[in-house]
Amino acid sequence: MIFLVAFLLEVFVLTVIEYYTWNTLYTPLVCLMLPYTAILLLTLMVDGELGFVPFNYESIIVWHVGLILFAIPSFCIGTALKKMDVNIHPSPQELPVSKFQIGIATVLCLLFMWKLKSTLSSSTAFLGTDEFAEDFAGTGVWPHLREILMGLIIMFIYYLNRKRWWLMILIVLMLIVQFLYMVKGSIIIAVCAGYLMRLYCGKSHMNLKIVLTVALSAFAVFILVYMVLPLMGNEKGEADMQLFEFVIGHFMHYLTSGILGWSYDVDMGIIDKGDISIILSPFINLFNFAFGSSEPMLSPVNQFYYNTGIALTNVRTFFGTLYIYTDYGQFTLYTLTISSLLYVLKAVSLITNNIYLSFILFYYCGLLAMGWFEFYFFHLSIIEVPVLIGMLAVISCIGKMIPNINISWRASR
């Protein structure tokens, strides 16, 4: 219990320091820290109850250390910006919605509709199963097209207002694609990143209604993934109380699987210790692919599954996973480095007032906000999504220049 009390005190102190450093709570450290704290307290409510395994309070220690390390670059960079008289208040340049981005989103939605129709007629798997999801958008160019949708969802959620209500149609269609792929994290991260940016920029305001909406939306995702889609895909499927209890159980399992998975791992003596190459796998895999290396692709998927009470889990939270694949020195260096890079990105976005850099920053904040579940920074998407957002920015800029180029050319004639 002393570990919990000390941790909660640390979270409070770091939150206050972060606010006075950046004049906002929508920062990478807070996005990592507060969601984990909330899910931790929820996990403790079912500690050893309802079939869940008991919680090991010593598993909090790695988060004690990790958050302090993560906070150091934040404080240093924020203090330096204040001494440079840089305006640290959120004010990214507000741009009109790009027609090119709307066009790309529309084309991609039509392509995925075609792919869904094709998969329904060719796949032997039921809709709503992992096998169907893999056939639908798990191979070839389709996973990369889904990453483009990730960036577009973040952008369109930010741009959404009463005059642009029609953006909701595209947002829903793009989210349906993510639903069909059955990766709940992709849905949550995209929506979370877009809404965090709205809160950061003052386009929305945090209140009880928002909190309840988020909670109900998260539960709705599970209803869709574990109940609606399987029933649609299986003609013999029937909705009953047993199925509803199954969905509720898996919802609680999902919320607690990272924290209880790491806690159970600590109980077992961390038998899944690995090498830092797993943490760096997106860079290593990309390097090997670019230079035609014969080395096999590294997989970040943990092969050790633990039963935490309702189902199996192989996720260990952000700092838990980082600890598994590093030694003490590597853990310290990586945490300081990733925090420094994110806060440098934040500083540059403030100095340049560039909204696309803010989109990239809050994509990473969305990944951090899922730190209570897993370490998402060992996936290729940490490179791919920012690059694709940058490409969308360039395409949009070129699109705006085309009319001016035509006018200039006609004038020269």
Structural features, described:
- Helix 3 packs parallel to helix 13 (328-352), helix 8 (184-200) packs across helix 14 and helix 14 (355-369) packs antiparallel against helix 15.
- By secondary structure, this protein is mainly α.
- It has helices at residues 2-22, 28-45, 61-83, 99-122, 130-137, 142-159, 167-181, 184-200, 208-233, 241-267, 281-290, 318-324, 328-352, 355-369, 381-412, and strands spanning 306-307, 312-313.
- Strands 1-2 form a two-stranded antiparallel sheet.
- The chain has 15 helices and two strands.
- Helices cover 69% and strands 1% of the residues.
Give a brief description.
The chain has 15 helices and two strands. By secondary structure, the chain is mainly α. The chain has a two-stranded antiparallel sheet.
Question: What is the subunit arrangement here?
Answer: single chain
What is the succession of H and E elements? HHHHHHHHHHHEEHHHH
Quantity of strands, as a count? 2
List low-confidence stretches.
405-413
Q: Note the total helix count.
A: 15
Structural class of the helices, strands and pairings? mainly alpha
Strand order, sheet with most strands = 1-2
Give the secondary structure arrangement, pairings included:
Layout: H1 2-22, H2 28-45, H3 61-83, H4 99-122, H5 130-137, H6 142-159, H7 167-181, H8 184-200, H9 208-233, H10 241-267, H11 281-290, E1 306-307, E2 312-313, H12 318-324, H13 328-352, H14 355-369, H15 381-412
Antiparallel strand pairs: 1-2
